[in-house]
Amino acid sequence: MVVREEARKMKLAAPHMAAASEEMRNAALQKIIETLEENRDAIFRENALDVQAAEETGVAKAVVKRLKFDENKLRDAIAGIRQMIGLTDPVGKVTLKRELDEGLVLERVSVPIGVIGVIFEARPDALIQISALCIKSGNCAILKGGKETARTNKILFGLVHGAAVAAGLPESCLLQVELHNEIDELLKCQGDVDLLIPRGSNQFVQYIMDNTNIPVMGHAAGICHIYLDERADLAKSVPVIVDAKTQYPAVCNAVETLLVNRKIADTALPVVLQALTEKGVMLRGTQEVAELVKGLLAKGCFGEARGNVCASQEANSVGDVQEPLEKRYEVEIMGEDDFATEYTDLIISLKLVDDVAEAADHINKFGSHHTDCILTEDDAAAEYFLQMVDSAGVYRNCSTRFADGFRYGFGAEVGVSTGKLHARGPVGLEGLVTYKYRLIGEGQLVGDYVSGKKQFHHKDI
Amino acid sequence: MVVREEARKMKLAAPHMAAASEEMRNAALQKIIETLEENRDAIFRENALDVQAAEETGVAKAVVKRLKFDENKLRDAIAGIRQMIGLTDPVGKVTLKRELDEGLVLERVSVPIGVIGVIFEARPDALIQISALCIKSGNCAILKGGKETARTNKILFGLVHGAAVAAGLPESCLLQVELHNEIDELLKCQGDVDLLIPRGSNQFVQYIMDNTNIPVMGHAAGICHIYLDERADLAKSVPVIVDAKTQYPAVCNAVETLLVNRKIADTALPVVLQALTEKGVMLRGTQEVAELVKGLLAKGCFGEARGNVCASQEANSVGDVQEPLEKRYEVEIMGEDDFATEYTDLIISLKLVDDVAEAADHINKFGSHHTDCILTEDDAAAEYFLQMVDSAGVYRNCSTRFADGFRYGFGAEVGVSTGKLHARGPVGLEGLVTYKYRLIGEGQLVGDYVSGKKQFHHKDI
Predict the structure, then answer these.
(1) What's the mean pLDDT in A188-197?
(2) CA A283 to CA B413: how far, in whole Å?
(3) Using CA atoms, how far apart are residues A198 and A205, in angstroms rounded to an integer?
């Protein structure tokens, strides 16, 4: 396949795809549900071959788990499409209607972006989700999935594409790219591809951004913060910190850095660090934090002499292994610049700050503008944080892990954007449309307005 | 000045600028009006030196005219700021408010983009307009104006910046860059500068796009089209074509290509070409057009035997000069690829098409997605055109020259975007904001929703 030629064909098909009625687009989604259900056994068979091949080549168990496409994943994927059918049509919304002058009416109407290239990791449900989002929003899409699920992707793509075409959508509405070197061809399709959405490792996303003139939407890093304020409610806050760090540490919305108000460090750190280390989290931090923790340890603040908040938790144990307190609470000293690190692992960076202002400055300097949270009962501190932190998501008293299209009620997401233009945060249907201005006149000339013969009256209607 | 350091300072000031109240931002605009009025004589003095220097170095008269900042331009600039004070605040608009679950509320709120770098041509009023747009929208801005108005820019910047700071905005809210080589420094400020808006020649904008990792908003070309449909009302249409081509041919929203329906070419071309050539427009076109025009000329369709529509116009004269009809109606033959040409001059490309579908295909292939117009009385053809043409502006029966922020009622514009992401068409205040998601909870954990202990209910409130 010559990607450039296929992309050009798709570009010409894009206005026809954009003109497809809401009924037709929803009918395509309905047909996709039916065909997936009818072909479940064949899908599972292909997926089993992918999984077997991965196991044979020694792919890590955690990764193999992600490759699996079973009854549960099919059910969830279908539930996602069903939910999407019910969502309001993102296309054709009139967001401005203004009479510029008598008989000269301006409208701003939402329209699909056109041709979107999505390069995603080896997760079969991603193919279904992304295709469905693009169909619902009237976009043509070029899809390249991870090679570890090549067989599953192939059968899924065939079924999804067949259903879309059977429902009346253009043949060129969806295209699958299967070879890794075709990604580089795709990067050169400026003019035909309107937007690239790469998902995957930081390096991969950065590679895409550095090697194309096509606009790229995505995030290259997810360095999320939690600031534990002096007026935080510890009983409420500690589980949030644990959830944000440990519930799924490999993802971009997991927390990487905990900033603790200096005034409460003595009392908060024992409770927080006990809860984190209990889940196997390793500690890094400034020299100040390392020394403070050492001092607290010497005073017996961890273990026996711990505060009431965590009294119900079993101390000093990680699983069944007993380890010396000194080892468990060892804080590896890190430099200032190390705070710009995304671990995506059970490691957390620790720093003390004087107040919410210092916390916000640190986050704006070292963060990735993804999602950051303040834990506090102080409304003024919370408002300052929400206002001053320059991130797509600014949270109060809840886990950073909520930054997700499904959790926001978008049905699904094509990715999370840490850029500030177009779409920010989890990107659902609204991020896949743009708009055009329609101006309807009766022969009006600009010359008449420049000469002063006529005047605009700009009446919103 | 080290631009990188100044940009970094500005980045840290940006959240404070974004937090400035609407009252403070409007007060700054009011103060700018006052200081401009108080210092009018000094401004005119500096401008006179710029103009004198330009004349001495032999700058073309048309350009010198653009450099002048006189009573009229000051009055218009002040009227623009006054209008902007009255516009709705673009910052702090809540565009989504949703209860994800009990006590967990998501809000999407519009916020300034942050730090914007604007590089603009030698037009003193542009400095005032751009500063005012950035202040109104809560953005910090780095401004680099054309060197031909260096003295005027310097005094204007000092007055505008002084007024903004006096009104309480951060010292680093505006920065002027004066040296040309500092543009290259500015291009390297990714991370600190959120958006670049270059204005000027195609090559210049393309240079900026090719040499920075900072997102760029703007247009590299304005290849606008008019399609004259078989059901066009010629009496209404001919003046629109003339206005779109000749009212100000040097700008991006002037028309470059006229597509004529083959069925009406015989009758329409004599009228249209007479009106265009009367204004000095030179003709280019396909071989088919060249031959057709030659044939029409031989039949005497131009000059004596012309139709009624143009009977009131004086034929065959361009100014006072009489020239042979053959010369006046000579169509220089052009190749297919030449249609992707922006003349910004009194030249027009001509082509015949079978129908609105062929017209739309041509525009999508050769246009720059700026602004394109259909002239027709046929509602179905118009609707097809407005739907299928993939441009920021799609017009019916009016001049492409209406594509402009002031004419759209945006108060002013920082530029016109031909990109499809973020902002499209004339970019006013709304294009200078983005949004953030605020999520307010009471200690909610993602783990509870993953395990099924809790469910989202997603109620819009």
Answers:
(1) 94
(2) 50
(3) 6
* Cβ neighbours of B437 in A, within 8 Å: 392-394, 403, 408, 424-425
Residue A444 with chain B: CB contacts under 8 Å: 240, 397-399, 402
Q: Per-residue confidence at A204, pLDDT binned at 50, 70, 90?
A: confident
Q: Which of B210, B430, B446 to mutate to test the interface with A (most CBs of A within 10 A)?
A: B446
A170 or B202, which is more confident:
A170
What is the nearest CA distance from A56 to chain B, expressed in angstroms?
Answer: 31
DSSP state of B111: E
CA atoms of A439 and B202, how far apart (whole Å): 26
Kindly state the average pLDDT of the residues B63-71: 87
Distance separating alpha carbons of residues B229 and B227, to the nearest angstrom: 6
What tens digit of pLDDT does each residue of B350-360 get? 999 999 999 99
Å between B56 CA and nearest CA of chain A:
31
Average pLDDT over residues A412-423: 88
Rounded alpha-carbon distances, angstroms, from residue A303 to A238, A298, B460: 17, 11, 46
A440 has which bridge partners? A105, B396
Cβ–Cβ < 8 Å for B202, B70: no
Mean pLDDT, range B90-117, rounded to an integer: 96
B-facing residues of A in 105-124 (CB < 8 A) are 106, 113-114
Averaged over B50-54, what is the pLDDT? 94
pLDDT at A59 (0 to 100): 83
Say whether pLDDT at B312 is over 50: no
Task: Give B191's contacts (C-beta < 8 A, 6+ positions apart).
Answer: B11
The DSSP bridge pattern shows strands B224-228 and B255-261 to be: parallel
Residue B235 CA to its chain's centroid (Å):
29
What is the reported pTM? 0.89
Neighboring chain A residues of B439 at a CB cutoff of 8 Å: 393-396, 398, 402
The 8 Å CB, 24+ separation contacts for A236-239 are A236/A375, A236/A397, A236/B442, A236/B443, A237/A272, A237/A375, A237/A397, A237/B443, A238/A271, A238/A272, A238/A275, A238/A309, A238/A310, A239/A275, A239/B443, A239/B445
B440 and A397: CB-CB below 8 Å? Answer: yes
> Residue A296 corresponds to which amino acid?
L
Are A105 and A132 a contacting pair, CB within 8 Å?
no
- Report the alpha-carbon distance of residue B270 to residue B355 in Å, rounded: 20
- The pair of structure tokens assigned to B14 is 């940006």
Rg value, chain B, Cα? 26
Of B387, B389, B409, the CB nearest to A456: B409
Angle at which helix B22-38 crosses helix B71-86, to 10 degrees, equals 170
What pLDDT score was predicted for residue A221?
A: 79
* Residue B361 sits at the chain A interface (C-beta within 8 Å): yes
| pLDDT tens-digit map of B316-335 | 444 444 578 889 999 999 99
Q: Does A445 touch chain B (CB under 8 A)?
A: yes
Instruction: List Cβ neighbours of A252 (8 Å cut-off, separation of 6 or more).
Output: A219, A221, A222, A224, A342, A344, A370, A416
Can you give the pLDDT at residue A381?
A: 98
pLDDT band at residue A322 using 50, 70 and 90 as cut-offs: low
- DSSP assignment of A26-41 equals HHHHHHHHHHHHHTHH
Write the pLDDT tens digit of every residue in B356-413: 999 999 999 999 999 999 999 999 999 999 999 999 999 999 999 999 988 998 878 8
Please compute the mean of the pLDDT values over residues A290-309 and round it to a whole number: 76
List, in sequence order, every residue forming a beta bridge with A283; answer none if it has no partner.
A331, A348
Is the Cβ of B245 closer than 8 Å to some Cβ of chain A? no
User: What's the longest Cα–Cα distance across chain A?
Assistant: 88
Amino acid at B397: N
